[in-house]
Amino acid sequence: MPSSSPNPLLSDRDAAFQLYEVLDASGLCALPAFSEHSRETFELLLDNIRRFAREVVFPSYRLMDAEPPTFRDGRVHVHPLMRRLYPGLVELGLLTATRPHEVGGAQLPFTVASVASVYLMAANLSVYGYAGLTMGAAHLLEAFGSPWLREEFMARLYRGEWTGTMALTEPQAGSSLADVKTRATPVGDGTYRISGSKIFISGADQDFTENVVHLTLARIDGAPPGTRGISLFAVPTRRPEGGRLVDNDVQVAGVIHKIGWKGLPSCVLNYGEAGDCRGWLVGQENRGLAHMFQMMNEARIMVGLNGVSTASVAYHEALAYARNRPQGRSVAAKDASQPQAPIIEHADVRRMLLRQKAIVEGGLSLLLMASWQSDLASHAPDEEVRRRAGLLLDLLTPVAKTFPAEKGYEANALALQVHGGYGYSSEYLPEAWLRDQKLNSIHEGTTGIQGLDLLGRKVVAAGGEALRIFAEEVAATVARARKAGVEERWCAAMERTMDTVGELTLTLGSMGMAGEVEQMLRHSADYLELFSIVAVAWRWLAQAAAAREGLARGAEDRDFYEGKLCAAQYWFAAEVPRVPHLAELCRTAEDSYTRMHAEWF
Amino acid sequence: MPSSSPNPLLSDRDAAFQLYEVLDASGLCALPAFSEHSRETFELLLDNIRRFAREVVFPSYRLMDAEPPTFRDGRVHVHPLMRRLYPGLVELGLLTATRPHEVGGAQLPFTVASVASVYLMAANLSVYGYAGLTMGAAHLLEAFGSPWLREEFMARLYRGEWTGTMALTEPQAGSSLADVKTRATPVGDGTYRISGSKIFISGADQDFTENVVHLTLARIDGAPPGTRGISLFAVPTRRPEGGRLVDNDVQVAGVIHKIGWKGLPSCVLNYGEAGDCRGWLVGQENRGLAHMFQMMNEARIMVGLNGVSTASVAYHEALAYARNRPQGRSVAAKDASQPQAPIIEHADVRRMLLRQKAIVEGGLSLLLMASWQSDLASHAPDEEVRRRAGLLLDLLTPVAKTFPAEKGYEANALALQVHGGYGYSSEYLPEAWLRDQKLNSIHEGTTGIQGLDLLGRKVVAAGGEALRIFAEEVAATVARARKAGVEERWCAAMERTMDTVGELTLTLGSMGMAGEVEQMLRHSADYLELFSIVAVAWRWLAQAAAAREGLARGAEDRDFYEGKLCAAQYWFAAEVPRVPHLAELCRTAEDSYTRMHAEWF
């Protein structure tokens, strides 16, 4: 009994609420970069994108999940629908929405583009995947590429004529980029001969454009060991030579059978097996990792948005199912002679739905805040504003990447659970989204790595300045919430919790300064979870404030605002009280799993 | 890079520890029913079963996951390996291991059989599934069937000549058995004409035995509405008539595409489409649900054991992977010129492994305690001992069913995560076990239903007597732990936590007595989670006591015992402190999701 109402992917009302009531997206147009824009141009983009996402992209999801790419005759053949879908995305201006006019872009705020991307990812994350990877590769070339690379490679990527990939991971190194071994040998003509092997390269080959450019990490002969000897290269599958494209000796050695993201191939890629693979240096020698990491915030925010999207589409599916599926009766009315009630009437089903809502909409709000800081960091005229926004963006990124991956996975599991036995069947969609979501805790830096990044780098950076900025932003939200008449107990809990974060971080930072780095970082996973609860509480407090403001205006959609207040209440009751215990584990450096020898397992 | 060492499925050392050091399984032989047995006969069974599980059953897992049953010409064709595996199980005596001599059984303790079943389920849960369902059906016939049914149906099930199913769920009713509609019309010769439709019937058809018997809930014409009008029938696919088997008009209408348990078909079953389906009443008219529920503890404990098994095999796979996979270096040694370390050296990987160990071994200990109470409830000579054990078994069952399903799922996700990008590929096994595990929160009563069962029935039953018995058992374990020299802070935490459970349950029970049933049950999911943490803490305290006793004996395997103490430490540090917050949610009947109207979502 699939639901009859079409899945909205994301609530339009919530998108508008987050952009214009929680944030003031129209206010972004006061920045010179966005001065040609207005709420109207934002909505024009969003309307086009959401219509395309719902009417064209979403119907492709099940088909592409069922028919993954095939590998034959050395080439990857993706679902034939991609030949229609990718040009559609390009035509809507997705690839260059946020890029400057000088490269043909619409120069829209990242915040607005983020909302657009949620509709598309929720509709079919694999379709979006090709675009996201291409944007990442093109953006690197835009920032660090030579004029020739910008003209020959970047422009074609932005025009949708070629696609791009990010080729970092190697079989023997995994997350440990210091151990990258792919070699680059200068040829003498300014290019390099590339040889080596990469794994888990998404979109490494396809058959809907004529070429693919791999932004590849490699080590120039004689470079220092570790992360300081890695350079970045643009390595196309077919290279321009004498006015045409010739084979560049980049071979797909195999397609990995992923459990989700089925529309997007993930490949093992061999460079230079025939000794004839050329790469072009992007940026400076040995600065490859630094260049790549300059784009990392954006890449990780895309993963976070993906997590939100994948949880959102499943939440809406579960909500429609719960409204339509009759089964049993409420606790109060057990009389079997009465008709069955829709399962949304059962308290425990409602708990599962409200938890999903809290994760999805809290996660979206967090991701849009990170996007907002990215816009300020790139485009605020005031240097101090840019600096602060950059620090806050750095701080929020590991949280914004991980929260939707981890709690989104839980939300996706709940969406399946709401469907009961039907949820366990592949005739219903929730199980597919559950498979999709699982990747987000792994790619672009595992959850473990994000925890180390947050605690080992971000919160202690610049003498803890990022954390101070975060605390100031939270304090401003508390002030807004108090003014709007939000429940005082939530405001007080927010303040108390921020005090806990501050004290805890100071304690852990002192451990690190005293050389007890292992103890400091032992519970980085718990610290990250704690920080996620707090960051999302901040976003729920902001949403509660905006909801109270809306109710005070006497706006028509009371139901929407009341729902927001229930979800905020849920977060402050169910999640925020977990903070002291998580803090205790970090503070005491509880030692069960480091005391445990490998041979004791 | 799959691990080279074979997966042990379950640690033999842990199996022996749980049976003979935490519990005193040999002591069960003092009960008259088990007087012919000894540790030697227990170990004979376990040795045979674990060898068969490892050498014969486990190699079938991947094959059966990849090639699920097909449905053609109205029949289900299962994996051909089943023709060899099922007779193997029968030959080992699995089907009648716990059954009395009078039906050809070995009359072994359920506790010992539970350990045996963990090896088999961990090896291939679908293979075990056919046996488990057959045992359930046969056991119902043994308990309530007429002599004719016992001879004609039960004996063939126990001999492995036929298989059985449990046919409860209907498409329009789901978990709401009060809404069962399948009809039974007396024919006059003692049989009934059955008509109706069932869904999610596991093992409803196969092609490795000649017949399948469906233990079917149906409503005799004129029976009262609701649960008091449901009777139990034995309905074979082919019925005995004139000395041979003839078609009994039971049709498989389709096979559901489940996401896991791929070796075991789940079907839609239509009865009496041609008006010629006969059923035999089992037990009394209108007492079908009561009869079925008399077997429900056993069925739910089997689900719990399955959850433990599925988490166990994945934990061992992750452990071997973490020991073998080199990647990166520890926090203390970042020098990239050094060789990479196995990932088990990373604190966060060790956290993920210890959490899995705590869930798997804590869960096993809980399930064996439930099995132990089942043995006492059935076989203790003293009526008072039987009564107490029965009440404790009833109380523990929803917890023992749910904990491995919910936390086991988390453990399975961690096993995948330990494998990094490889874990996201179907060339590695963890993703398959993750799919398998997800069913356990749904079948045999969803997690939501288990919460209502625990809080709405079990802890308040007999004036709270079951809870008092539970508290006495925990107190006895605390005394044992203190005597053994277990950390006093764990003992004190256990006592404090039990006080919390007692007070909370009293408060909630009073709400119920005051007519506030909805408030009382609102947080039944949180109550169940709280109770699970406490019950598993009890089992970790018992394991810590046994480990201390082992260390005091100067036993050789110090490593094993030290590992147990680390896992106990982890549980008391990471999980037990969550109890006060969960209790607060229950006690205050926090109302976010009941306040939330259906239209506010």
Strand order of the largest sheet of chain A: 4-5-12-7-6
Gross morphology of chain A is: globular
Kindly identify the CATH topology of the largest domain in chain A: Butyryl-CoA Dehydrogenase, subunit A, domain 3
Look at the structure and name the CATH superfamily of the largest domain in chain A: Butyryl-CoA Dehydrogenase, subunit A, domain 3
Integer-rounded radius of gyration of chain A: 24 Å
Number of domains of chain A: 3
- From the N-terminal CA to the C-terminal CA of chain A, the straight-line distance is 46 Å
Which architecture of the largest domain in chain A does the CATH hierarchy give at level 2?
Answer: Up-down Bundle
Query: Largest interface, and how many residues on either side?
Result: A-B, 98 and 98 residues
Taking all residues together, what is the mean pLDDT of chain A?
Answer: 96
User: Which CATH class of the largest domain in chain A is shown?
Assistant: Mainly Alpha
Structural class of chain A: alpha+beta
Low confidence ranges of chain A: none
Number of strands of chain A: 12
Q: Helical segment tally of chain A?
A: 20
Strand content of chain A: 5-15%
Quaternary state reads homodimer
Structure description:
Chains A, B: Residues 470-596 form the Acetyl-CoA dehydrogenase-like C-terminal domain. Chains A, B: Pfam families: Acyl-CoA_dh_1, Acyl-CoA_dh_C, Acyl-CoA_dh_M, Acyl-CoA_dh_N. Chains A, B: Residues 286-452 form the Acyl-CoA dehydrogenase/oxidase C-terminal domain. Chains A, B: Residues 166-269 form the Acyl-CoA oxidase/dehydrogenase middle domain. The structure is a homodimer of 601-residue chains. Chain A is an alpha+beta fold and 601 residues long. Chain A has 3 domains: 12-144 and 151-158, Acyl-CoA dehydrogenase/oxidase, N-terminal domain (Butyryl-Coa Dehydrogenase, subunit A, domain 1), CATH 1.10.540.10; 163-286, Butyryl-CoA Dehydrogenase, subunit A, domain 2, CATH 2.40.110; 295-329 and 340-587, Butyryl-CoA Dehydrogenase, subunit A, domain 3, CATH 1.20.140. Chain A contains 20 helices and 12 strands. In chain A, the strands form 3 sheets. Chain A has a 5-stranded mixed barrel with strand order 4-5-12-7-6. A two-stranded antiparallel ribbon of chain A has the order 1-2. A two-stranded antiparallel sheet of chain A has the order 8-9. In chain A, strand 4 (183-186) and strand 5 form a beta hairpin. In chain A, helix 8 (296-324) packs parallel to helix 10 and helix 9 crosses helix 17. The longest helix of chain A is centred in the middle third of the chain and has 36 residues, at 383-418. The mean pLDDT of chain A is 96. At the A-B interface, helix 9, helix 10, helix 11, helix 12 and helix 13 of A face helix 8, helix 9, helix 10, helix 11 and helix 12 of B.
